[in-house]
Amino acid sequence: HVQLVESGGGTVQAGGSLRLSCVYSGYSYNTYCLAWFRQVPGKERDRVTSINNRGEQTYTESVKGRFTISEDKPKKTLYLQMGSLKPEDTATYYCAAHWGAYCHTDHASFQFWGQGTQVTVS
Fold first, then answer.
1. Higher confidence at residue 26 or residue 5?
2. How far apart are CA 120 and CA 79, in angstroms?
3. Rounded to whole angstroms, what are the CA distances from 74 to 24, 32, 80, 96, 119?
4. % of the chain exceeding 90 in pLDDT
5. d(CA 56, CA 70)
6. So what's the pLDDT on residue 28?
7. What is the pLDDT of residues 71-81, one digit of tens each?
8. What is the sign of the dihedral through the CA atoms of 79, 97, 4 and 53?
9. Minimal CA–CA distance to 80: which of 47, 112, 54?
10. CA angle, corner 14, sides to 107 and 122, nearest 5?
11. What pLDDT is attached to residue 1?
């Protein structure tokens, strides 16, 4: 049973930084994709960044150079370091996972989800 538990959200001023964490458990496959999505009310859940078991990363254009995804495999923890935050980064952030090393972009392809953590940039 795969579980993902996020933490680290909060309120920060524009230009500030936050680090989100996602502890995962229950994995039994060697190939996988981990990702961060975000969603604002009334809009779709969009993928922000992803990383696979080979360490290959992707970023949506709006966060390139500001956000960094990383994984600590021994700790089974996924991180999202966010810097130079803007009000438009305000959203609920979710970590997600699916089997297979090819990281999909659509939320429907992700089988496992965390509960979400709110990030507010004022």
1. 5
2. 18
3. 11, 15, 17, 18, 27
4. 93
5. 10
6. 72
7. 999 999 999 99
8. negative
9. 47
10. 80
11. 82
